[in-house]
Amino acid sequence: MLQSNNVWKFIGFWMAWHMHLCALVNNSREVAMSSSITLLRHLCATVIVFILVALGSFAYAFPVTELFISEYIEGTSNNKALEIYNGTGAVIDLASGGYNIQMFFNGQMSAGLTINLTGMVADGDVYVLAQSGADAMILAQSDQTNGSGWYNGDDAIVLRKGTVVIDSIGQVGFDPGSEWGTGLTSTADNTLRRKLTIVSGDPDSLDSFDPFLEWDGFTQNTFTGLGSHEIIAPVITPTPEPSTCLLLGTGLFGVFLLGRSRNK
Ligand SMILES: [Ca+2]
Ligand SMILES: [Ca+2]
Ligand SMILES: [Ca+2]
């Protein structure tokens, strides 16, 4: 896949090629190059540039570089589930990647439960980890279940890759009393869904946690969003490297010369 700087470089090369063409046109009588061939070359170069720029734009469709938690269900009894979203553009093997979920109960600094994730999660798909005693609607969406005692609203949750924290809910080592947040957007007796504009996890599990910043809240036992997730990809403006700027400048100068030679 083309990276943004490669696209800019190609545009630079294309413009530099125009400068070369400019020299050809200046000597057109000598080399007897027909105007129809020149036009054809122009058209071919333009089409190639547009195709490559279009291909390069796909690179911006994957702003997600790592898994993150996209949904958190803390319902009645054992209606508990975590949905993990893969927007990285590639399938992820959870076991070989060493991905795991940890739960820190009641303000403790050490994990009370660690669940190693297994299986594959396709690009654009989610992986659902559910408590084994959850509602049938939750279990129908689950990819993995676990029968231990889970969180009940005042417990921090961490998603790790190996030993590296890549996302977190709550604050490890802190007991909020009963929940983080208020109303529907709180960690107890609600469903929390990651806002569509969030494209990466919260890797700092030790700082204060405010669910309103990254989550939308839904009433207790809302299961309808489990099993899929969407994001709104941010617009990323490619920044050309200095060498690319030089190439673009040279190309632009070539185009300028070409225009002058034609106006003679
Ligand atoms: Ca608890
Ligand atoms: Ca945090
Ligand atoms: Ca979801």
TrEMBL record:
It holds the Pfam family PEP-CTERM. It comes from the Bacteria. The chain crosses the membrane at residues 6-27, 39-62. Keywords: Membrane, Transmembrane, Transmembrane helix. InterPro entries: Ice-binding_C, Lamin_tail_dom. Residues 56-173 form the LTD domain. NCBIfam families: PEP_CTERM. This is Lamin tail domain-containing protein. It comes from Geobacter benzoatilyticus.
